[in-house]
Design goal:
three-stranded mixed beta sheet, alpha+beta, 23% strand, DNA-binding, Dna Ligase, domain 1, homodimer, Arc Repressor Mutant, subunit A
Chain lengths: 140, 140
DNA sequence: TATGAAAACGATAATCATTTTCATATTAAG
DNA sequence: CTTAATATGAAAATGATTATCGTTTTCATA
């Protein structure tokens, strides 16, 4: 059975604070260092893996490495939880959309393809970035 | 303006032959070697980048590297083309589904998020693999 | 308090896909 | 044929992630 360590708590706390603001393992390390509780990268990866297995964080892998995002407050088996990732700002948004669920059901029935909502990341542009057309921010 | 080289033609031909059977850069290199026309990995990556920019191939990046798939015959601005990737066999399927388009419109109108179909990869399990429950194949 | 085994830690090395570098080869005009 | 632009390939560099391994922490028990 797993031990409770201060690193584990620190990583979890840091992810909670970020909320829907997804981050990379390196960014997490930087956050922790600045918070006065430095944690080794290897340990961070280990914790993230555990948290993902436990269903407490979402992991989504893109070109420049994986992004992790806290989702502990959301019901674990929650099928209506979908992920939208903004290509501009890198933020990951959770959406609770009946139509999305309906579509997935449709794909399963008519196209014989069973979508895994937890592993699916819809890519596009969020409203904030769409409104800023041209204004450049920290991409990811 | 780009020169026409035999490597360029070989890479394109190889991708065409694979059709909807997506592959990695390394697999492409292997194909070309076996076809008696070995091409350096660096060149393959360079060609893939050009082809992607030209809209001739789709690039989708997952955990274990990117997958490339020929899509030259499909209209470039074709918004109704969606990608489904099987988590088991790694195959990428194209789906032309009106409901998918309707959903994306819904997300834009109601959730203020504009989906980029070309960059979105729906992940799940295809019918073939679902029917083989347990039988293991070459995962990716 | 001690002890000790299980589990976790961190520094570092290893992997692996992708990119860069750079010297050489190929292409397409003139 | 010459030449300048572009492409190639081998090898080194990069960067994220994982594995290794000796050390440290946790926690139940003495």
């Amino acid at each position: 059975m797993p031990y409770s360590t201060k690193q584990h708590q620190a990583v979890l706390r840091c992810l909670e604070q970020r909320g829907e603001n997804a981050c990379t393992a390196a960014e997490l390390a930087e956050d922790l260092r600045r918070a006065g509780c430095p944690v080794g990268l290897a340990t961070i990866y280990r914790q993230l893996e555990k948290l993902e297995t436990a269903g407490v964080v979402h992991k989504v892998s893109g070109e420049e490495g994986a992004l992790y995002q806290y989702c502990g407050h959301q019901a674990q088996g929650h099928r209506d939880c979908f992920l939208l990732k903004c290509e501009r700002c890198g933020r990951i948004r959770h959406v609770d959309c009946t139509q999305l669920q309906a579509l997935y059901d449709h794909l399963e029935r008519e196209h014989h393809f069973r979508i895994n909502p937890r592993g699916t990341l819809l890519s596009g542009v969020c409203d904030v970035c769409a409104g800023e057309e041209g204004t450049h921010h920290g991409d990811r």
